[in-house]
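Case study B.
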Amino acid sequence: MPIKIATWNVNSIKSRLGGVIAWLKENSPDIVLFQELKCETQAFPYLEIEELGYNVAAQGQKTYNGVAILSKFPIEETIKILPGDAADDAARYIESVISVSGQILRVASVYVPNGQQPGSEKFIYKLKFLERLKAHEQKLLEYDEVLIIAGDYNVAPSAIDVFDPIRLEGTTCFHPEERARLNAILHLGFTDIFRAQHPEKKQYSWWDYRAGAFQQNQGMRIDLLLASPRAADLVTDSGIDERPRAAEKASDHAPVWCVVDV
DNA sequence: ATGGTCGGGTGCCGA
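Model:
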């Protein structure tokens, strides 16, 4: 049974709701992973989303961050924090077990910190967050499940994933320390679904609002769907839908999707 | 060109 899974950094669910609902209606993804809700949990537009046939698990906070999981299938259990740092209460991680006609699927929506500038305190927090994510994903791999951990990783994996790799080398989202930590996650056995399916394709998932970056296609591929070995074996299709990025009042990220035949 | 444009929330911060 083909299951369509999408990840999308919406950059404020409340200001994006019309476009998000239109995209959900047009594309009918079965599971959707949101980042950057920018609203508190109780302010999530549950009614409007549930009306489309989704169950919702959300973890928000005031002003910043915020992640959610939408599923047309029952959500069995959910955790709302990334283990490994009890002092970190930022709403950057949510993970659910989803039951698809008797089969178990585990998905997570992750919003990796942007990191501001290399060397800054926020950059160190980003690197530590990626290490925490690796430790958790390593544990999850032991379950040998169909597992997809997707979201805004805020790291472009390789030179092909940024519009000017020479100029951008060493800058935020394309720094060797970030790539090393993302690669450490991939080396656990995760597959970057889009890249595995489209080895040569230069396509981005994020474009800066400033300086006409989208119009000039000056972007980065920082929104990733990472599949466990069992999930990777079931992927039949994937892509990045740039159309919503061209719309009025667009998020600066495009949705990235895949199909898993469970 | 070391800028620029967004959203949140009400002064700037984060991206």
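The radius of gyration of chain A is 17 Å. The remaining cases will be described in the next quarterly update.
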